[in-house]
Structure formats: C-alpha cells, structure tokens
Design brief:
The complex is a heterodimer.
Chain A lengths: L1 H8 L7 H17 L4 H15 L3 E3 L5 E6 L4 E6 L2 E4 L3 H8 L1
Antiparallel strand pairs in A: 1-4, 2-3
Chain B lengths: L2 E6 L7 H14 L4 E5 L7 H5 L9 H5 L5 H4 L1 E2 L6 E4 L12 H12 L4 E5 L6 H7 L4 E6 L3 H16 L6 E7 L1 H5 L6 H8 L2 E7 L3 H8 L10 H13 L15 H8 L4
Parallel strand pairs in B: 1-5, 1-6, 2-4, 2-5, 6-7, 7-8
Antiparallel strand pairs in B: 3-4
Helix pairs in contact in B: 1-11, 5-6
The chains are: A alpha+beta, B alpha/beta.
C-alpha cells in the first residue's frame, strides 16, 4: 500500500490497472461477439465446407460447428464426418491455388 | 439537404445528452441551422441541459399524435436563433413513438436544416431503435471504463446490423493523469479494441457540472477544456481536419514538482 503510494508519487505505474482493464475487456468482448447469429454460423459452415471439399468429401448434414465458451477462451469446435478422401486432391489444390 | 446524426452509447450516464447539446450549440455558433431531438421519452433531459425547460409547450409525442404541427413544437434556443430543440415527452413511454414516425419526422426536417442531432436513450430496447430509425450517421460515446466500452461494442454491432455503418467514436470523461499513472485505458487501447474511427476525446472537466447547473452548454465557456474539445468535434463533423487537443498539460502541483526534480 505504502509502496504503491510512493511509486505513484514518483510517477511509476505500479498498479497499472490499465492493463487489467484492457485484457478483461478483450476477453469479455470475445465472449460477447462470439454470440454469432445463426446466419453467420451457417455462412461460416458453408465457407469451411467449400475449402474442405477441395481435399475430401464430407457428410454435410452431419457436419457440426459450435462455439465453445469456457472461462478463459472461446473455441470454434468442429466435427467433420468424412465420406471419402479424394485421390486427386493434389491436382485440385494446385489447380485452385 | 441536412444530415441526421444520432448520438448513442448503450450505457447510461456517459454523456450522450451533454454531447448532443454541445455539438449542436457549437455547430449553431458557426451559423448552421440545427435541430436537436430528445428521444428519451419519459426521462427527458436535453431541455434542462440546454436551459430551455421553461419554454416547452408541445413535445415529440404531440407531433406524432397530430396534436400540433412540427414547427409549433420546436423551441428556439436562447443564444442562437438558428438552433432548435424538439423535446421528448415526459409522461409517456418509449413506445409512444414508432420507428416509422421517427423516419417521417426526420425526413420532414431534413430539407430545412443543416444538421439534425438526435439524443438517444440508454439501452438497446425500443427507444434505441426509434432514435436510430431516421439517422444517416451515428456517434457512439464511451468513457474509458470496461463497462462503457463493452456496451459501446454492443451498440456498434447493433448499429451496423441496422445499416448504420462506420459509426464515429467519442471518448468522454478522459483523465490524462490517470492514464499516465497506468490506471486508465489510453485512447489507442479503446480505439484498437472497438476498431472504429475516432471523432474526438473530451477530458473530464468540472465545468461540465457547472454548465449543466446553469443550463449553458460548455462550448459557450471559452476556458473549459471540454468545451474546446466539443468545438473541435463540431468542426470535424463539418469535415475539417482538426488535431486532437493537447491532453498533456500540467496536472497539478505534484507533477510540476516531479518534472522539476527530473523524475519524468
């Protein structure tokens, strides 16, 4: 307490609650913004499917994506059932890139 | 053809009404014709901040209900004859006006005035959607606090999904001394997190309370730092390039002493 006061008088940012504020805000906004509308979730799912389709055929009906929120992180979790992997995927990737 | 600007924030008490009054007064002082609309039905305050509370006869609900003509409800400012206030109703609730009615009202005013500035209520309910219905542009107010910035982020999202893209940010009640001590988020922290254009920074200023006490917007006070910040914001709204104020002036005795001692 006293040290904090002395540091403060000397102009040193000892407590630096600024950093706390910034980091807490960043995290809380990740959570807030992660409440994506079903429209965007579907859009994301289709985009992902288009990319994956270059490599393998997937079962789109059983393809799932969810945002998993825990205390510290928000994760995008996907479950992608594969029907088959394309033999020609090397060519297809080269062609499209 | 005028421009319709809504002043919003999500969180209450961050300075929407003060900002509306000051920007409007600053623009009017430059000779532009201005209408201020208070859409905070049930909790009106723009009238007292402007010092016009004793002149109210009709309000916005009287206009939308057809009890009077729009021009009859406009209250002329004490200081500038090209500045008008359309007050909110005090005894009704937010549903007394609909978004369609707001849009019609804005369209009716747009041709005759340079700027129509709408003071939005706090919150994200009906009142918010009414306030933004007729707007061309939005200004989002926040203070450098976690709660206010979080709400600003939510509001920016809602504005964008209502087709009010690229809202402009004002950081209000900024305290440079606390930033220097590492106890307040800096301008770039907030701009970085919200990822919107900065319209201005208004520092904490005791004279704002004095100006509200008197019903005289701070832009009328030439020594008020907040007043100066609002005058600059008004010029930026008109499209002028104006630098941010120097927020690094002396912060009182301890800092002067520190500087003398070569500690900073």
């Amino acid at each position: 307490m006293l040290l904090e006061y002395i540091n403060r008088v000397l102009g040193k940012a000892a407590s630096s609650s600024r950093i706390h504020a910034r980091e807490r805000l960043r995290l809380v906004l990740v959570h807030d913004r992660a409440n994506m509308s079903p429209y965007f979730m579907n859009q994301l799912k289709e985009d992902l499917n288009n990319v994956i389709a270059r490599y393998m055929v997937i079962d789109f009906d059983k393809f799932e994506i969810v945002l998993d929120q825990s205390d510290k992180v928000v994760e995008l979790k996907t479950s992608v059932p594969i029907k088959k992997i394309r033999r020609d995927y090397m060519d297809r990737v080269k062609k499209s890139s | 053809m005028g421009e319709i600007i809504v002043v919003t924030s999500g969180k209450g008490g961050v300075g929407k009404t003060t900002t509306t009054a000051n920007i409007g007064t600053a623009l009017a002082s430059e000779g532009l014709s201005i209408i201020l609309i208070d859409t905070d039905i049930g909790l009106r305050n723009l009238d007292v901040v402007m010092g016009l509370e004793n002149r109210i006869v009709y309000d916005i609900v009287d206009v939308t209900n057809g009890n009077c003509r729009l021009k009859q409800a406009l209250i002329k400012d004490k200081r500038f004859e090209n500045l008008y206030l359309l007050p909110a109703a005090q005894t009704k609730d937010k549903t007394a006006v609909s978004p369609d009615e707001m849009e019609d009202l804005c369209r009716e005013l747009k041709d005759d005035y340079d700027y129509i500035i709408i003071d939005c209520p706090a919150g994200i309910e009906q009142g918010f959607y009414n306030a933004i219905a007729g707007a061309d542009q939005a200004i989002v107010i926040t203070t450098p606090e976690v709660s206010a910035v979080r709400d600003a982020d939510r509001i920016i999202g809602l504005l964008e999904s209502s087709d009010l893209r690229n809202p402009k940010l004002i950081i209000n009640r900024f305290r440079p001394r606390m930033v220097r001590q590492g106890d307040m988020m800096d301008i770039e922290d907030i701009v970085d997190i919200l990822a919107v254009d900065l319209l201005g920074v208004v520092q904490e200023d005791d004279r704002i309370i004095v100006s509200t006490n008197r019903g005289e917007p701070a832009v009328m006070n030439l020594i008020s730092p907040a007043g100066e910040a609002y005058r600059r914001i008004a010029r930026r709204i008109r499209g002028e390039e104006v630098p941010l104020m120097n927020l690094e002036e002396s912060y009182g005795i301890m800092n002067k002493l520190r500087r003398l001692m070569g500690l900073c």
